[in-house]
């Protein structure tokens, strides 16, 4: 009959529509301590790493929902503020419309593990610093974590509970103008800022005569601008030296018995290095007569010797 045919058509149509229903994945960001759930994002990626969808968690309970329009393989990742730690950080899933967690309506949850202490070790007079500075995190007298700064001087300690922490910085060669900072973690990351400061970096080289080490040669450091004192370096120029340029004479040192000279702590910046060697009767020519050098968050060792 017409009614039966219509009913069959309607049933088939409903099934086709249901097969194209929007799927979805949902769940919660969970935490044992108070956090701002609205700062936590959830992102959906394809298996190839392409971002398909992103959303924020509900501020009251951390709930999220991601609509899915196609079956396939996906990765759901939690996207918190820098330094916040979660377990897991991501969940891989294959949506088949039958057996996967999303289709079955199961929650996919991410559990908050802790905040972070973030900061930077910088060079004096700069807003960036070196990699490789040791930084240790203490709570009272107890060492919690240790690490080294990354490129630019940044460091992160995570996961951490609320409390007061001390960060200590150290390096086997470089002098730190400030090596300690206290930071408090409450309901967000503890930001130590750029409180830890490296005074300067080493500048070393050699001088030879016919391939043999030459001691007693003065090396005069000139600055393109006024700068702070260079520790371990005799202020001003050696006797008999005339500064014919516009640069400021900072200080000088002499090569040792091995022909080696070493400025231990030179602040970041641009400098000119001039050799000077004379006896009571004779002034000797040393080449190169001027060497331009840039100190930028690392030691500098001149490969080509003066001669």
Summarize this structure as a short list of keywords or feature phrases.
single chain; mainly beta; Immunoglobulin-like; 3 domains; seven-stranded mixed β-sheet; six-stranded antiparallel β-sheet; disordered N terminus; NOMO_3rd; signal; SDr/BOS_complex; NOMO-like_N
Describe it for me?
6% of the residues lie in helices and 50% in strands. It is mainly β and 307 residues long. It has 3 domains: 20-108, Immunoglobulin-like; 115-198, Immunoglobulins (Immunoglobulin-like, Sandwich); 201-301, Immunoglobulins (Immunoglobulin-like, Sandwich), CATH 2.60.40.10. The chain is elongated, with a radius of gyration of 32 Å.
In short:
The protein has 307 residues and is mainly beta. The protein is 6% helix and 50% strand.
Strand and helix layout:
Blueprint: H1 2-19, E1 23-30, E2 41-46, E3 51-56, E4 63-68, E5 72-79, E6 85-87, E7 90-95, E8 110-123, E9 134-139, E10 142-148, E11 154-160, E12 163-170, E13 176-178, E14 180-185, E15 190-198, E16 201-206, E17 208-209, E18 212-213, E19 218-223, E20 234-235, E21 248-254, E22 260-266, E23 269-278, E24 283-284, E25 291-295, E26 300-301
Parallel strand pairs: 1-8, 8-15, 16-26
Antiparallel strand pairs: 1-4, 2-3, 2-5, 5-7, 6-8, 8-11, 9-10, 9-12, 12-14, 13-15, 16-22, 17-18, 19-21, 19-23, 20-21, 23-24, 23-25
Domain NOMO second beta-sandwich: 112-199
Signal peptide: 1-19
Domain NOMO-like N-terminal beta-sandwich: 27-110
């Amino acid at each position: 009959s017409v009614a039966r045919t219509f009913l069959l058509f309607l049933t088939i149509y409903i099934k086709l529509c249901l097969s194209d229903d929007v799927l979805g994945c949902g769940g919660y960001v969970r935490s044992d301590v108070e956090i701002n759930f609205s700062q936590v994002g959830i992102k959906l990626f394809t298996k190839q790493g392409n971002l398909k969808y992103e959303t924020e968690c509900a501020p009251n309970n951390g709930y999220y929902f991601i609509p899915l329009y196609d079956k396939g393989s996906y990765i759901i990742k939690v996207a918190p503020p820098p330094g916040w730690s979660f377990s897991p950080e991501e969940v891989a899933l294959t949506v088949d419309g039958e057996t996967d967690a999303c289709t079955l309506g199961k929650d996919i949850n991410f559990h908050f593990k802790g905040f972070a202490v973030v900061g930077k070790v910088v060079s004096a007079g700069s807003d960036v610093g070196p990699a490789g500075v040791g930084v240790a995190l203490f709570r009272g007298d107890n060492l919690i974590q240790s690490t080294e700064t990354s490129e630019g001087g940044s460091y992160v300690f995570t996961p951490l509970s609320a409390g007061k922490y001390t960060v200590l910085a150290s390096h086997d060669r470089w002098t730190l103008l400030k090596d300690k900072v206290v930071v408090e973690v409450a309901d967000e990351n503890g930001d130590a800022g750029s409180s830890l400061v490296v005074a300067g970096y080493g500048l070393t080289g050699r001088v030879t005569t016919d391939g043999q080490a030459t001691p007693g040669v003065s090396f005069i450091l000139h600055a393109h601008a006024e700068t702070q004192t260079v520790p371990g370096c005799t202020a001003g120029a050696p006797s008999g030296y005339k500064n014919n340029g516009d640069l400021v004479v900072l200080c000088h040192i002499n090569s040792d018995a091995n022909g080696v000279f070493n400025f231990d702590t030179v602040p970041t910046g641009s400098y000119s290095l001039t050799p000077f060697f004379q006896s009571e009767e004779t002034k000797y020519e040393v080449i190169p007569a001027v060497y331009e050098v840039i100190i930028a968050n690392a030691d500098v060792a001149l490969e080509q010797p003066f001669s």
